[in-house]
């Protein structure tokens, strides 16, 4: 009998996907694993089984799934916060927060509000009336704005605003403070979240927490964290610290046994759709004077990319609006930096070719297309660029990686894959069906760096599915039962 934590020597009777399936068709094969890698692939029974055997019973096996955009601590702590995703008005949200139990530090924290879809507007008076003297915080789904009451403004030392809202950098500062738990508490939450992720087939994430992640992941690895691989980012405020510490993108963090690697420099260059701050060519539908905003001056962006590139550090540039995407591509052109544009939710037709020509990776979140379709219809109704492209990017030969932006969307690659393939999250028809992608393409974009296939000599990061994703409908994809997840041949989940 196999158990979680076992190192598997043979994965028996599984069916392949991708290029490896060409040689074997849909017939079951055995994967022989040695020292964490796939040593051989052969028709079931052709090679003598030995050691620990995991029987796949004809199930489909895939490369391990990755989420290329996660805010780890915020995602891990999200379970402790009041969920506001289904709330439909400011008045309802305020009442809900007024009745909620405070956390151990006395603050009341909600997450997932979508005020751009509410029937009324947030105001300081409304939240004060409902929540009184308890410091209360409602984090927008996109994390680019936070609604506070007067008690929270006093606690955090910010001047109150008439609508009670803080946006962009001020909102990020509030989130950083709310996410700063003691190390033991945060690490325990991350460990539990990592186990949940493994149960969904996740073998790796890119962590974009707004903290100094080198120390945090070193500490977690030293304490035995082993649920999945991690590539951790850092932000502009810590760029020189990273350079001084000798961090280089792709390097293994010392003593983590190839589990944790240095990731990119993260730069946030504009806002978001829901907060109406993404930098766009045309005005927002509800505000003809609002074209969004740049949060990093283009010249400063060039300087960051030049410094990072000279130090061997790749960059991950947050750009949502089409003006921001174009500016980011300009910076990549000017500096010849390597890396990704994160989100790319509004892309000019002419910029598709620039992505490909520069070798810039589009790191996108297909679930946002499902969640944002109503916002796009009202706030971006005047935009002429392509909204939430996926197929358009791929058709232009752009390398594409999938992620969730958790906790903005669930850290569940099957929800992400279903959104990319079906382009809807409910019974409505697909939204912009021309941007749907085939299941095989979605699976590959969800593998490590969006380019990993099963092959002899490859790392034995594997997912064994209880149902066949190649023939599953939308709901079956979303809830895809995972029979087993292996990380370097070690079982991190057994269903």
In short:
The chain has 495 residues and is an alpha/beta fold. The protein has helices at residues 21-24, 72-77, 90-99, 124-131, 150-156, 169-179, 183-198, 213-222, 239-244, 298-310, 322-335, 349-358, 366-379, 391-395, 413-422, 439-445, 474-478, and strands at 10-15, 29-34, 37-43, 53-63, 65-70, 82-83, 108-113, 136-140, 145-148, 165-167, 202-207, 229-235, 260-268, 315-319, 339-343, 346-347, 361-364, 386-387, 400-402, 462-465, 482-487, 490-494. It has an eight-stranded parallel beta sheet with strand order 5-11-12-13-14-15-17-19.
* Straight-line distance between termini: 13 Å
- Biggest beta sheet summary: 8 strands, parallel
- Give the DSSP E fraction (strand runs of 2 or more residues): 15-25%
Which segments are poorly predicted (pLDDT under 50) over 5 or more consecutive residues?
none
Derived structural class: alpha/beta
**Number of helices, counting only DSSP H or I runs of 4 residues or more:** 17
Report the count of strand segments. 22
Provide the gyration radius in Å: 23 Å
Query: What sort of overall outline do the alpha carbons produce when their principal axes are compared?
Result: globular
State the helicity in percent bands. 25-40%
Give the strand order of the largest sheet, numbering strands 1, 2, ... along the chain.
5-11-12-13-14-15-17-19
Mean pLDDT: 96
């Amino acid at each position: 009998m196999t158990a979680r934590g076992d190192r598997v020597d043979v994965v028996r009777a599984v069916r392949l996907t991708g290029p490896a399936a060409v040689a074997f068709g849909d017939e079951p094969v055995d994967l022989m694993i040695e020292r964490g890698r796939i040593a051989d692939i052969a028709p079931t029974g052709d090679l003598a089984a030995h050691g620990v055997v995991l029987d796949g019973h004809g199930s489909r096996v895939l490369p391990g799934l990755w989420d290329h955009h996660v805010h780890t601590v915020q995602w891990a702590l999200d379970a402790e916060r009041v969920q506001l995703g289904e709330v439909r008005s400011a008045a309802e949200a305020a009442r809900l927060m007024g009745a909620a139990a405070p956390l151990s530090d006395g603050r009341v924290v909600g997450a997932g509000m979508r005020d751009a879809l509410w029937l009324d507007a947030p105001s300081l008076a409304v939240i004060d009336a409902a929540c009184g003297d308890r410091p209360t915080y409602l984090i927008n789904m996109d994390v680019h704005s936070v609604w506070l009451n007067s008690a929270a403004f006093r606690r955090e030392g910010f001047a109150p605003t008439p609508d009670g809202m803080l946006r962009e950098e001020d909102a990020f500062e509030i989130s950083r403070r709310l996410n700063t738990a003691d190390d033991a508490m945060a690490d325990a939450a991350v460990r539990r979240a990592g186990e949940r992720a493994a149960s969904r087939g996740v073998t790796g994430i890119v962590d974009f927490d707004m903290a100094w992640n080198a120390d945090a992941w070193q500490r977690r690895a030293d304490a035995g964290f082993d649920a999945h691989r991690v590539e951790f980012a850092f932000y502009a405020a810590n760029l020189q610290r990273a350079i001084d510490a000798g961090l280089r993108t792709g390097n293994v963090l010392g003593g983590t046994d190839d589990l944790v690697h240095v990731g990119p420099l993260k730069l946030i260059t504009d806002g978001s759709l829901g907060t109406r701050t993404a930098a766009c060519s045309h005005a927002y539908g509800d505000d003809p004077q609002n074209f969004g905003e740049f949060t990093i001056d283009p010249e400063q962006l060039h300087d960051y990319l030049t410094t990072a590139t000279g130090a061997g550090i790749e960059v991950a540039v947050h750009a949502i609006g089409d003006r921001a995407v174009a500016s980011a591509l300009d910076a990549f052109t000017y500096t010849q930096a390597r890396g990704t544009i994160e989100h790319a939710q509004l892309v000019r037709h002419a910029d598709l070719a620039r992505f490909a020509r520069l070798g810039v990776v589009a790191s996108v979140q297909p679930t946002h297309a499902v969640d944002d379709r109503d916002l796009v219809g009202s706030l971006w109704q005047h935009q002429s660029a392509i909204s939430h492209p996926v197929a358009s990017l791929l058709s232009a030969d752009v390398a594409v990686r999938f992620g969730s932006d958790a906790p903005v969307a669930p850290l569940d690659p099957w929800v992400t894959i279903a959104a990319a393939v079906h382009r809807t999250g409910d019974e409505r028809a697909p939204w912009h069906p021309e941007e749907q992608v085939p299941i095989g393409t979605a699976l590959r974009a969800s593998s490590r760096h969006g380019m990993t296939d099963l092959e002899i000599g490859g790392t034995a990061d594997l997912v064994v599915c209880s149902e066949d994703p190649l023939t599953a409908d939308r709901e079956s994809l979303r809830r895809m039962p995972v029979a087993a997840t292996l990380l370097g041949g070690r079982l991190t989940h057994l269903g």
